[in-house]
Amino acid sequence: MSALRKTLIALALLPFVAAVPAVTRLVHSAAADEAKSPETKLATSEDAKTFFNGKDLSNWWGDKTLFTVQDGEIVGKTTTGIKQNEFLKSKLAVGDFRLVCKIKLVPNEANSGIQFRSVPHNGNEMAGPQADAGKGWWGKLYGENFGGKVIGENKSGEQVVIPNEWNTYEVLAVGTKVRTAINGHLCVDEDIPNLPKTGIFGLQVHAGGPTEVRFKDLELELDPKFELKTVK
Predict the structure, then answer these.
(1) Which of 172, 211, 220, 222 pairs with 48 at a CA distance of 20 to 30 A?
(2) Which residues pair with 168 in a beta bridge?
(3) How far is the C-alpha of 228 from the C-alpha of 232, rounded, in Å?
(4) Can you tell me the distance from the alpha carbon of 13 to that of 28, in angstroms, rounded to the nearest whole number?
(5) Strand ranges across the sheet with 177-182
(6) Could you give the CA distance from residue 64 to residue 124 in angstroms, rounded to a whole number?
(7) Where are the domains of the chain?
(8) Which backbone phi and psi does 214 adopt, to 5 degrees?
């Protein structure tokens, strides 16, 4: 394991000490995952340009039987359902960032989400904050294996979501502050003291029945101002 990789994991896990009582379990599970995790690097502005190249999953890792690229879109799909959450994980780690993308979830009753500043956890799982998606969850910030509950005061994006169609999702994190927006509607505006400082992204296919989630037009910006671009 490289010195940079060790540093990234240590930085990402430090805030978990305050947030999750079973910190020893988190550290051990993340360390165990390192044996099968690819090398992760801290993203540069040049890396951000090819965060997703629209052609393949060369900057990502996970279960490639669930995640594919079709017509410039990242597709997570199960026709039979799965018993545990699965994530397509980025090989790039970030600190302060803005991610804008379009997401389509079918059916809307299913669930997905975008992990950020997160780490691998307990096999195929992840630990860290998640910009959630799905009926009753759109736009909310959830602590995936990171407290296990909604973080802060969230305004639902439900009223502006177009079910089973493309929706624009913006996730912004600067320091300990996080904002999310769905279709230009502010959902989260929180200062989270124990927010991990760095970590990777993960695109989720949630446990449950048949699901298809698509992501396209992913735009990653590093070191942005704490201002949402999609909210006017």
Answers:
(1) 211
(2) 102
(3) 8
(4) 11
(5) 67-70, 73-78, 211-222, 97-106, 167-174, 177-182, 185-191
(6) 12
(7) 3-222
(8) -125, 145
The two three-digit tokens of residue 34, written as one number: 């390192």
Cα separation, 63 vs 7, in Å, equals 26
Contact partners, residue 49, CB within 8 Å, separation at least 6 = none
Q: Where are the alpha helices (DSSP H) in the chain?
A: 3-13, 16-19, 23-33, 45-49
Q: 136 — alpha (psi -120 to 50), left (phi > 0) or beta?
A: left
| 26 burial via Cβ count (<10 Å: 0-12, 13-18, 19+) | buried
Q: Would you give per-residue pLDDT tens digits along the chain (232 residues)?
A: 555 444 444 445 444 444 444 333 333 344 444 446 788 899 999 999 999 999 999 999 999 999 999 999 999 999 999 999 999 999 999 999 999 999 999 999 999 999 999 999 988 899 999 999 999 999 999 999 999 999 998 999 999 999 999 999 999 999 999 999 999 999 999 999 999 999 999 999 999 999 999 999 999 999 999 999 999 8
Tokens matching residue 170: 């913006």
pTM over 0.90: no
Task: Let me know: does 112 contact 103? Beta carbons within 8 Å.
Answer: yes
Q: CA 139 to CA 186: how far, in whole Å?
A: 8
CB contact at 8 A, 74 and 216: yes
List the CATH code of the domain at 3-222: 2.60.120.560
Grouping H, G, I as helix, E, B as strand and the rest as coil, residue 181 is: strand
